[in-house]
Specification:
Order of helices and strands: EHHEEEEEEHEEEHEEEEEEHEEH
Shape: globular
Helix content: 10-25%
Structural class: alpha+beta
CATH topology of the largest domain: Pseudouridine synthase
């Protein structure tokens, strides 16, 4: 079992919410189960899920040993861009789902990592699984990092929170962005009607910030670079659609008709930079634009 000692930093936050926010990979429901099992104390006293924190409270949580998940390792080829004893960075192709889910029970990145990594797995949140700290959509290609140990998982998740884990994407959006660079700072939450979609939601959404810069302009389209401060679901797609420039090929937030030659939206996670969990050195990796993305740019350039 892992024993974590945390310090509360907010006044009046529910204890289960505090745990879910500060322990990487721990969901609100998992935090509540820990509290119900008596595995959490506050200043030495048993904690309850609706207890409220005060700055400086000493919160101690005992995490259970990880249990195997019912996911079968599969020998699926991986494009490994960087790997050591702590982390692995993979260039995910368009069409590959990250986690098994209804409709996608196998053939996922998790299945592939279970086969590739063997016993080197993160067990945060009580499940034995590759420590995938962030996700990218099925129809988005590019870099995704996974932790091989709980220590690495905790380090990378903390870097996501303080923005020292840097992610940069390239995309083609519909329409001409007039400015050379800009920022979309708009909270994102579940769509009020279609719960499978996300939407800008100033009232109930979580903070989301996307910085963009123009790489090239073509008739009716713009090639841009995007840098994320936050990692909300569908963030780039929602933010660009909200300013009237949805991604080319995005049939959820943009035009409903497919674009010939595109399997998904024109979005590629090209560059990733992080502080190595072992020694704190800055590691930066990148992968080239996939052939289908480059073909889109060639086609657009011919229209000029």
């Amino acid at each position: 079992m892992d024993r974590l000692i945390l310090t509360a930093d907010r006044e009046g936050e529910r204890l289960d919410a505090f745990l879910a926010r500060t322990v990487p990979g721990l969901t609100r429901s998992a935090a509540q189960r820990l509290l119900e099992a008596g595995a959490v104390t506050v200043n030495g006293a048993p904690g309850r899920k609706n207890d409220k924190t005060a700055p400086g409270d000493a919160v101690e949580a005992v995490l259970p040993d990880p249990e195997p998940v019912d996911v079968v390792p599969q020998d699926i080829p991986l494009d490994v861009v960087y790997e050591d004893d702590w982390v692995i960075v993979v260039n995910k192709p368009v069409g590959m789902v990250v986690h098994p889910a209804p409709g996608h029970p196998d053939g996922t990145l998790v299945n592939a990592l279970l086969h590739h990594c063997g016993d080197s797995l993160s067990g945060i949140n009580g499940q034995l699984r590759p420590g995938i700290v962030h996700r990218i959509d099925r129809d988005t290609s590019g870099l995704i990092i996974a932790a091989k140990s709980d220590a690495a998982h905790l380090s990378l998740a903390a870097q996501l929170q303080d923005h020292t884990l840097y992610r940069e994407y390239e995309a083609v959006c519909v329409g001409t962005l007039r400015a050379d660079a800009g920022t979309v700072d708009a909270p994102i939450g579940r769509h009020p009607v279609d719960r499978k979609k996300m939407a800008v939601d100033p009232k109930n959404g979580r903070p989301a910030v996307t910085h963009w810069a123009v790489i090239a302009r073509y008739p009716g389209h713009t090639h841009i670079r995007c840098r994320l401060e936050t990692g909300r679901t569908h963030q780039i797609r929602v933010h660009l659609a909200s300013i009237g420039h949805p991604l080319l090929g995005d049939m959820v937030y943009g035009a409903k008709k497919p674009v010939p030659g595109l399997a998904g939206q024109c979005l590629h996670a090209k560059r990733l930079s992080f502080l190595h969990p072992a020694d704190g050195r800055r590691v930066t990796v990148e992968c080239p634009l996939p052939d289908w993305f480059q073909a889109v740019l060639v086609k657009l350039s011919r229209q000029c």
